[in-house]
Write a structure and sequence with these properties.
It is a single chain. The protein is of the alpha/beta class and 467 residues long. The protein contains 17 helices and 17 strands. The structure holds zinc ion. The site of zinc ion (ZN) has 5 residues, from loops.
Length: 467
């Protein structure tokens, strides 16, 4: 279930028991291991290891520590190795001004040359940066300016650019991470996140959406607690995933699935799952009734890949109520059954009513996550029809006035904003629990939204993170 996106299995620390280490990783649920190269010799070894083990993939490159070895011949062979079917990236490359094992001018030259190689062969990069963030980001951004680099990997509607690489063992804070994510990069956090003094690693692991994170052990280094200080190995990856899940208030499975999909998008390892009509997150089960939506929100992540936390929601055809009821099984296994999928659920009001009625009869709890346009969509006041069937409604408020609302959701704000507010008031009047949410964007006035929701409408106010 896990992908270890960064482990140096070719390190001499594993010479005595490499195959046993890989076997233990598989037993621990690690499906794939990406082994970066640190110099030409090590890159060759990474490719050989990947040839011998189906679950191992290689990156080829010269680490900043070894930058003095990155001569023309070495770089030429690195570029040639990129054609190997099990080489998934150029790396690890970057700058390390902490140890300065190679002179800085040579580090910068080797890094630039290998960014060039990555662009030429159209592969992603695995970046190492230590006490050199500013210089590293500057060099990376020079390459990001080239719109042809991995351009075909982008989904046309995605709000994020094509995945270009990963900053492994990310040493920056959440704000720096977000800038890199917007440029097409993942960040990965190793076992440091389990340390008492985890610092910014914990901040990033808590605040950055798992869609932008990868898991890594960085074996044989940085073993997570309780193995801190000992040799690390990929079998310890679940310890790191557990800590990140705890910080994200998600399950380990949620983190594993989401980051595995990230590794698929970046490196092409593994495969996306089949489209799902129901999917679980935390302790809730979500119902994916439709791919239709009447809005086109600027902050919506679903338009591109239609994948939410590793769940593929791009269903070919809409399920019948009966199909969903069968897929739910016993609803009391879940805290809530939530109507929330790729599209706007109230487009399928009749199915909602039929499914919710089954769930209520079976002792389950129900919620709808909606844009609040159900009355316009169904051309009548639908709230009285939900009484006794729906326990909670969560409405995307998104903005505090019609123009901003229209701009963020790309629809007629003058018509839809007041209709959504009326729908919310009607829900407050008739249903047990109503929550209105805004996305945590700088341009939305949070206090104004809170006052509108709590004092005017009389509902619960909540924010959902943008990243
Ligand atoms: Zn490394």
């Amino acid at each position: 279930m896990f992908v270890d996106s960064h482990a140096h299995l070719t390190s001499k620390e594993f010479d005595a028991d490499r195959d046993a280490v890989i076997a233990r990783a598989i037993d621990a649920g690690v499906e794939y291991i990406v082994n970066p190269g640190t110099n030409l010799e090590d890159s060759r070894r990474a490719v050989e290891l990947a040839e011998r083990h189906a679950c191992v993939y290689a990156c080829v490159g010269v680490h900043p520590h070894d930058a003095r070895t990155a001569d023309e011949r070495a770089l030429r062979e690195i570029e040639e190795l990129c054609a190997h079917p099990k080489v998934v990236a150029v790396g690890e490359i970057g700058l390390d001004f902490h140890y300065d094992f190679s002179p800085r001018d040579l580090q910068i030259r080797a890094f630039r040359a290998q960014m060039e190689i990555a662009r030429r062969v159209n592969r992603p990069v695995v970046i190492h940066t230590r006490e050199s963030m500013e210089e590293t980001v500057r060099i990376v951004m020079e390459s990001v300016g080239d719109k042809t680099w991995r351009a075909q990997m982008a989904t046309p509607e995605s709000r994020f650019p094509a995945p270009k690489g990963v900053f492994h063992c990310f040493p920056g804070d959440a704000r720096q991470a977000w800038e890199l994510i917007n440029a097409g990069f993942y960040v990965s956090i190793p076992g440091i996140v389990t340390f008492k003094n985890a610092g910014v690693a914990a901040e990033v692991a808590e605040r950055i959406s798992p869609e932008h994170l990868l898991l890594e052990t960085d074996s044989p280094y940085l073993a997570p607690v309780p193995n801190r200080g000992k040799r690390n190995e990929p079998a310890h990856l679940p310890l790191i995933a557990r800590k990140i899940a705890e910080l994200q208030h998600l399950s380990v499975e949620d983190i594993a699935r989401t980051t595995r999909y990230g590794a698929y998008l970046l490196f092409g390892v593994g495969a996306p799952g089949a489209p799902q009509i129901v999917y679980s997150l935390r302790d809730c089960l979500y119902i994916n009734l439709t791919i239709r939506c009447n809005a086109d929100c600027v902050f919506c992540d679903r338009k591109g890949e239609a994948v939410i936390k590793g769940h593929n929601l791009r269903i070919e055809k809409e399920p019948t109520a009966q199909e969903v009821i069968e897929a739910i099984g016993d609803p009391t296994r879940f805290a809530e059954i939530v109507f929330c999928g790729y599209g706007e659920p109230t487009i399928r009001l009749e199915a909602i009513k039929e499914i919710a009625s089954h769930v209520k009869r079976s002792g389950g709890k129900t919620r709808i996550n909606t844009d609040g346009h159900g009355n316009i969509i169904n051309k009548r006041n639908i709230v009285p029809e939900l009484v006794g069937l729906i326990d909670a409604v969560s409405i995307s408020l998104n903005a505090t006035e019609p123009q901003q609302y229209g701009r963020l959701m790309r629809l007629d704000g003058e018509r839809y904003f007041p209709a959504m507010i009326d729908f919310a008031r009607e829900c407050v009047r008739l249903l047990p629990k109503v929550v209105l949410t805004i996305v945590d964007l700088d341009e939305v006035d949070k206090e104004k939204a809170r006052a509108l929701v709590e004092e005017d409408i009389g509902a619960i106010f909540s924010t959902r993170p943008y990243f």
